[in-house]
Amino acid sequence: MPDSARIADPSPRPQLVDAPLTRAADLHIGRVQDLGFVHDPHGYDALRLLDADDWAVLHAADGLSARQLAHRLGAGDPVRVSRLRDRATRLLAQGYLVAPDVPRPSDPKPPDRVFNTWVHLTNACNLDCPYCYIAKDAHHMGEDVLGRVLDALESTARSGQADRVHVRFAGGEPMLRFARMRTFYDEARDRCARHGVRFSAAVITNGTVVPPGAAEWLREHDVDVSVSIDGVGPAQDAMRPVVGGGSSFARLQAGLDAYQAAGITPYALVTVGDSNLEAMPELVRWLMGRNLAFRLSLVRDLEWGAGLLDDRHGAGRALSIERHTQDEPGLLTGAPLRRVQRVMAEVYDTIEQTLVQRHAEGRPVQPSIRTTHRFCDLELWRPLGPKACGAASTYLAVGHDGKFSACQAALHHPDTQVLTVDNLFDQASGQVQFDHAFARTQGNAECNRCTHKANCAGGCPLLLYRRAGDVEGRSPYCEVFRTVIPRMLRAAALELLLAESASTGVAAPGESPHAA
Q: Which of 144, 325, 416, 420 sees the fewest Cβ atoms within 10 Å?
């Protein structure tokens, strides 16, 4: 069966054949189209399809050795006994089964050491999204601040702590400052190259501003493009209104056409709130129809931490430094939770239906759902550490005024520090805006016993901090995550199954993508 764990099948060795086997902790085991699959949240790209023999071995492993399992399940058939023994040793080597003194698989391709810098080019924007945390005005990042950022990037490259330095150009609407972005990019790339460090960049845009030649330049310089999209037609226009009137969706479509005509496939960033929740299945179908990868993010009130799914929370409010500090910050529960769960079920039904339809038409889904789709801060294909992002360790955001924060959503809050020309790793870890590095030290009982903890880490640390003053609690969207993770895994397993069917010419088992 296809296996995304990237571990070669082992030849049976005595220590593998005779070691007592048990299932690894926190495995998610499910079925899709009458075939089993397993996911190891502590593994690396560790999703595997299971045939009947794999399924039997995985469920029978309860202290028996591979040899004992094979003889018990093989019922005296020497061929099947040999096959089952091999399956057990393979599942052990891949980390789905565990045994004393047998090491778990490590990341076969350790990630680069990367420092990420959010460069806030401008506060100006041609849209007026009510949930945006940026106070819009005409201020831009000046040459003096850009020069200081360049010096800090070079110090980081010189330090030997990074293999790659990555910059995200953002705003406001960063494409309003495209000329300055180009100049900065060229200089940053050259400075990093002097020290043997790679430089990469991305732009986060609303997709409605594409200056002449911009798409071609971005493609030639391999700059990733992420576009914010919140709905199709009126849903987009309501969530992301144009300053002065008009349709943001019409302008967005023109922008996407320009990018895709230039050979760029933008990544779609979708904010999901109360106003556009029911529009999500239609949007997902539309995105997949345009071959766009996408991330769905539940709207976060990062000012007060109080509102849940409140996409109008920014309208008419002055910026505040107050935090929501009730003793037990509530989770999304009751009717609002059931509403989100129902719509998300429809979203993942839509994804699975599209996968099956494309397979029936002989067309693969591009880009891959399994490798590109994200939901909020979840990470399914590698274990997260004590937090869901690199804030205050391998990431910082620099505002237009040259002050930095552990997170771009807190650039306008007190206690931001003036960026110096020193190593960015040191500046990030030495930030004083928050009283810790957003990393959990103990967690909480509910999270610590959750099978999804390695892929969740409590969600957005700033949201947790705003709600309770620390990051040890549960994400207010915890129950949504518990609903969505199994659906994401099933969609990924379905994609693996259909890809195998396409490559072998053997029909996939079952007719419905919704098999229990």
A: 144
